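re the bet — no i am not wrong, look at it urself. input seq straight from the record:
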Amino acid sequence: MEKPRHPHDHFFRQTFSIPEVAKDYLRNFLPDKLAAKLQFDAIEREDGSFVSRKLRAHFSDIIYRCPMKTNGMVYLTFLFEHKSKQAPYPHVQLLRYMLEAWERAIREKKPLPLIIPIIVYHGKTRWENKPLESFFQGWDETLRPYLPSFDYLLTDLSDLSDEEIFKIEARFLINILLSLKHQGEKEYLRNHTGLLFRRLEGVGDTEPEKNYIQMLLVYLLCTSDFSDEEWERIAEETPPIVKPLAMSTYDLLIKKGIEQGIEQGIEQGIEQGIEQGIEIHRREAVTNLLTLGKLSIEEIAVVTATSIAYVEDVRKHLSNDANAS
C-alpha cells in the first residue's frame, strides 16, 4: 500500500464521495430553510470536477446533484480547502470555479446549473468569513446594483469543539471531521484515540465498513509520524473491530514498504529504494486482492489507496500473463 502524495485531498475525496457521508453532512450543516426544500433521498454524485489546474492548489471538489421538492435542480459542491490558512479572496476563487461550470454547460448546450458552494476548512487558524462587498472600497449605496453578490456555506473545523462534533446526528461523518480537525496532532491522537473511533463499535462486519475504517487509519498514518511503539499503544485504545485493521494497515503502509525499500536502497540509495519498495508492495497487495476475487475494483482501489485505473492496469497484466501461460 502506498502513502497518498496529497493525504488531505485524498482522504476528503474518498470520504465525501460516500453518499451516506454527504447526506449526513447536508442534513446537519445546511441552513434549515434550504435543507427543507431538498430531496436528499434523490441525491446523486456527479462525475468529474469543475476545479481547474490553477485552483487545484487550493481546492478539490466533490459534486452532488440534488432535486428540489417543488421543481428545479441544484449542484451542491463540496470544496475542500487544502491550506492551513484561508485564501485571501475566497469569493474570487469560487467565482472562477462557478464560471468554469457555467461555461461547460454553455458548451454542452445545457441550462446553467445553480451552484451552492460548500467550503470544508481544516486549518488550525480560524477562517474569517467576510461578505464579498467588503473587499471593495470607496462605494456607496448608489453603486450597490453593480456589485457582484453571492455567498458560500462554510464549515470551519477550527471553530467547532469536539463536543459540538459529537452532537452531530451521523455515524462516519463524526470520525471524518475529528480526523481532519486534529490531523498531525500526535499528542491529541495518543491521548484521545477512543474519541477518534467513537461510535464504531459494532461497525466493520462488511467490506465497505472495513474499507471506511481503513481510510481513517491510512489518513492518520499519513499525517503523523508514529513509531512502532506509539502506534501499538494507539491500536490498543481502539474498538475491537479496529485493532487488527490498525496493525495490518500499519504493516502494509509503513513497515513492509520501508523494509523492502531499504533492501532496494543498498544499490540505488535509501530514499529511492524506499519509494520503490512501497511501489513493489502496493502492486503485490493489489495483485493478491484481485486473485482472491472478493472485492470490486473500486473497493480494491480504496483499500490499497490507489486509483481505479491503477487496479485495472494490474488486472490487465494478470490477464495477459494468464493467457501467455
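see?? Residues 184 and 223 are 5 Å apart (CA to CA). told u. also The longest strand covers residues 59-67. so pay up
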